[in-house]
Amino acid sequence: MENPLDLLPELLILAGGAVGLLVGIFLPRDRQRVVAWICGVALAAAAVVTATRLTRPAMTTFDAYLVDLPTNAARLIVCLATLLSIGLAARWARGRPRETELYTLIMLAALGTVVMAGAGDLLVLVAAYLLASIPAYALAGFAKDAPGTEAALKYYLMGAFCGVLMLAGVTIVYGASGATAYQDAVAPVAGTVLLLAGLLFKAGAVPAHFWVPDVTEGASAPVAAFVTTVPKIGAFVALYRLAGGVFGEPALLAVLAAATMTLGNLAAFQQDNVRRLLAYSTISQAGYLLVPVAMAGRTGLAEPALLIYLAGYAVTNLGAFAVVVAVGRDDLRDYAGLARRSPWLAFALIVCLLGLIGTPPTAVFAGKLLMFAAAWDGGYAWLAAVAAANTMASVFYYLRWIRPAFGRQEGGPAARRGVLAVVTAVASVALGIATGLLLLIP
Predict the structure, then answer these.
(1) Contact of 284 with 390, CB cutoff 8 Å
(2) Which of 14, 133, 253, 377 lies at 20 to 30 Å from 111 by C-alpha?
(3) 215 vs 341, which has greater pLDDT?
(4) Could you tell me how far CA 415 lies from the centroid of its own chain?
C-alpha cells in the first residue's frame, strides 16, 4: 500500500506555498512579509524531514517516483537553496503589492524542481518540467519593467520550444519501447536528442543556454539568483537518471559537457556587467556538472561527484548573487574599493568567486575533484583534460571581478549589510571541509 508520507517533504513545500498564498490574501500590504516566514518554516521543516531519511533504503512510490539518495540530496539542496533565495528576495519584495505571489511562485518552482529529481517516469518528468518552468517565467518578469518583460518573454519562448521538443521525445521513446517508466524505456537517438532539449534548457547548458544571460541581467537580482541555481538541481539529477538507463552511449553528453564549459568561459572573459559574468559562469558550471552525468553507469564516482558538486555550486552561486544584491550595482567599476567600504562583503565575494573556480577548501573543490576522477575512471581522460583547461581559464575572469575590490575607492555606492553573503561564504567553506573529511573516511 502506498504511503503519502513518503512524499512528506514535497507536501510540506506545497503546503508552504498554498498556506502562504491564502494568508497573504487577507494581509495588508505592509505585513505580507509574514508569508516569507511561512514559506521559510515549510522549507526548513522539509529539509529536516529529508535529513532524517537520507540513510533509508531506496524505494519507488506510486510506481512513478523514486525516493533514494539522489532524490533526498536534491530535496535537501533545493530546500536550503530556496530558503536562501527567499531571504535574498525579502528586502527587494517588501511592500510590493504582489509580495505574496513572489514567494508562492518561488515555492512552486522549487516543488517542480524536486519532482524533476525524483521522477521515475517520463510523464511525471514532463509534468515536473512544467511546474518548475511556468512559475519561473512569471518570476522573470515580476518587476513589470522593460528588461524584466523582455527577459520573461525570451525565457518563456525558449522554454516552450524546448518543452515541445521534450514531449516529442517522450512520444518517440514510448513508440519505440512501449513504456515511459525509466526502468523499461529505451531511447533511440532521435528520442535522446529531443528529451535532452528540455533538460538542457533547465540546466542552462549548450545548445539551450541562450536565455541565461538575458534573464540573469533583465530579471531582479534575487530572481536571477534563484533561476540560475535551483532549477539546475532537478535538471541534473533527472539527466543523471536518464543517462544511467534510458540514454545510450555517453559520447553525446561528453561532447555537450565540453562545449558548454568552453563556451561559458569564453563568453565570460569580456563581461563588464557582473550579472552577465555570473550568467556565463553558470553556463560553464553546467558543463562541469554534465561530466558526472555523462559518466553515469560507467563509474561509481559519478553519483557522489554530481551530488557534492550540486550542493557546493548552489551555496556558492547564491553567495555570489548575495554580494550583487547587497551592493545593488551591476558594473564592475562599482566594485572598486569594496574591500575598504565593506570588508565583509569583499570577503564573501572572494570566497564565492574562488569557490566557483574550485579552490580548496570550498565546497566546489570537492565536487570538482570527484568530477575529474569520475571522468578519468569512466574512460574519458580527454574530458577531464578539457575540464582542467577550462578551470584554469576561468581564473582570469573571476580575478577581473576581485581585483577592483582592492583598488582605489572611486566613490562607489554604499553597500547594504550582506549578512546572507557572509553566511553563504562561510557555509561554502564549512561544507567543503566537511565533505573533504567525509571523503577521507575509508
Answers:
(1) yes
(2) 253
(3) 215
(4) 26
| Rounded-to-integer distance, Cα 20 and Cα 415, Å | 31
Q: Residue 358 and residue 393: Cα distance in Å, rounded?
A: 12
282 is a domain residue: yes
For 373: left if phi > 0, alpha if psi spans -120 to 50, otherwise beta; the answer is alpha
For residues 388 and 11, give the distance between their C-alpha atoms in angstroms, rounded to a whole number. Answer: 41
Based on its alpha-carbon atoms, the radius of gyration of the chain, rounded to whole angstroms, reads 20
Cα separation of 78 and 12, whole Å? 13
Is 353 domain-assigned?
yes
For residue 273, give the 3-state DSSP assignment.
strand
Q: Would you state the pLDDT for residue 20?
A: 95
Q: Which domain holds residue 308?
A: 258-442
The residue-averaged pLDDT of 427-436 equals: 92
Residues 6+ apart with CB under 8 A from 119: 64, 65, 66, 125, 128, 238, 241
The number of helices, as runs of H, and strands, as runs of E, in the chain is 18, 2
By the 8 A CB rule, do 100 and 21 touch?
Answer: yes
Asked whether residue 380 is domain-assigned, the answer is: yes
Whether the predicted pLDDT of 145 surpasses 60:
yes
8 A C-beta contact, residue 115 and residue 128: yes
Number of compact structural domains in the chain? 1
Distance CA 304, CA 308 (A): 6
In a domain, 69, yes or no: no
d(CA 165, CA 51): 36
pLDDT band of residue 297 (cuts 50, 70, 90) is confident
d(CA 62, CA 72): 17
This prediction has a pTM of 0.95
Q: How far apart are CA 219 and CA 222, in angstroms?
A: 8
